[in-house]
Amino acid sequence: MAPSILTVSELNRLARSAIEQRLPLLWVTGEVSNLTRAPSGHIYFSLKDNTAQVRCVMFRSRAQTLPWRIENGQQVEAQVLASLYEPRGEFQLNVETLRRAGLGKLFEAFVQLREKLSAQGLFDASGKRALPRFPRCIGIVTSPKAAALHDVLVALARRAPHVPVILYPTLVQGEGAAAQIAAAVAAAGQRAECDVLLVGRGGGSLEDLWAFNDEALALAIRACPIPIVAGIGHETDVTIADMAADVRAATPTAAAELASAGWHAAAEGVAALGLALRQTMRQRLERRMQATDLLAHRLVHPAERVARARQRLSLLAAKLTANADGASHRRAAALAAMQLRFSRLRPTTDTSRNRLSHADRALRQAMTTQITSRRSHLETLRTALAALSPEATLNRGYSIVRRADGGVVRDGATLSEGETLGLRFAKGGGKAVVIKAVPD
Predict the structure, then answer these.
(1) 166 close to 193: Cβ distance less than 8 angstroms
(2) Which residue, 59, 66, 249, 314, is the most exposed by fewest CB within 10 angstroms?
(3) Same structural domain for residues 152 and 205?
(4) Please, what's the b/e burial string for 221-251 (b: 16 or more CB within 10 A of its CB; e: otherwise)?
(5) Digit-coded pLDDT (tens) for 153-211
């Protein structure tokens, strides 16, 4: 019989079932390395000892319950379920629980060296130097085969293409790499060809980056007369060289950006100024061109201008004549209409004279009659007044008796004996003395 033929998926599924059945939930101890945090929340890392390592995954639901932050170099104990990742056929451990088991040897050595150099003041901010704003030459200490070198050169070519770059080649991993890096830094300082020095490499595990956790390298960085930017590994990777450098960058590309920041900002500023200058010149040229076009339209040959003036004068003369004739006709018509109206409304003088003559005679007659009536009435009033006047009474034999103060005596009882009285008659008067008052 022909043997049964399995697909790769079927084979991986069988292997997974066999592993999970043979290896139930168990505890494994090791040092964390190659740690990666995925955007999904899962944590991927390796557990290793002196001779082997195994891939691990801690899914988000488990990672969220972890009360501490897992980092490379930590010695841990993990409760795991051995399994196989079928899509790639990779053996892995699914971590259910994780607890500390002490620091790994490399991480412990890193911490000890960090504390030692920090106590010596090697990492003090006061000893850090500012980067030159416009470096005329940039040096790079890294491996010629490193992928990070390509990223750094691309960034520098994009941001400061005119600045020359000098490579100081060295190993960045493995035995003897730390000494070579320190020697390259010292050589760059002695040759004094650059204004700023970049020291770095791409990401990796704690073992991969161990060459940068070296005391001699840290001392060489501090002794170098050139400001140094360290761009080692990823943003979460921190080495002794990062702490000793004048400036730490998250990545080698970020180190290149920091070193060329002044030139890049200047280029952007020049580009902005150039754009503003071009826009200003374009606007001014457009305004000048419009003004030129306007002047060109206004610029006319003298003969043409004279001809236009003559034509305009002829039009104005014709218009003036037409307006004058029209005004004359309108005024003549208005005058004729006014004459017609005046002739219709002109009064007849004969009738008015007759009316005036009758009115004058009537007025004179009325005035004569009124005067005669007024005179007759006046005479009547004069006659009545004469009959009532004191003179007429005196003429009838009466007299007027007055006291010395001029008052008229009307009652004899008011007289006093010996009082002097004045008498007035129709003609003349006299004085009298009261001998005796006789009351009525």
Answers:
(1) yes
(2) 314
(3) yes
(4) bbebebbbbbbbbeeebbbbbbbbbbbbbbb
(5) 999 999 989 999 999 999 988 888 899 999 999 999 999 899 999 998 887 777 778 88
* Domains identified in the chain, total number: 3
Burial class (CB in 10 A: 0-12, 13-18, 19+), 201: buried
Residues of the domain holding 410: 393-433
How, if at all, do strands 74-85 and 90-103 pair? antiparallel
Q: Judge if 77 and 148 occupy the same domain.
A: no
- The answer to whether the beta carbons of residues 308 and 314 sit under 8 Å apart is no
DSSP of 386-420: HHHSHHHHHHTT--EEE-TTSPBP--GGG--TT-E
259 and 176 housed in the same domain: yes
Q: How far is the C-alpha of 362 from the C-alpha of 156, rounded, in Å? A: 132
Q: Does residue 368 lie in a domain region?
A: no
Q: Which DSSP helix (H) or strand (E) runs through 279?
A: helix 261-298
Q: Check residue 346 and report its DSSP letter.
A: P
CA-closest candidate to residue 90, choices 37, 31, 12: 12
Q: Let me know: does 46 contact 54? Beta carbons within 8 Å.
A: yes
The residue among 233, 265, 297 that closes a domain is: 265
Query: What pLDDT, in 10s, does the model give residues 108-159?
Result: 788 888 889 988 888 898 888 888 999 999 999 999 988 889 889 999 999 9
Boundary residue ending a domain (249, 265, 281) = 265
> Quick check: 437 and 415 in contact, CB under 8 A?
yes
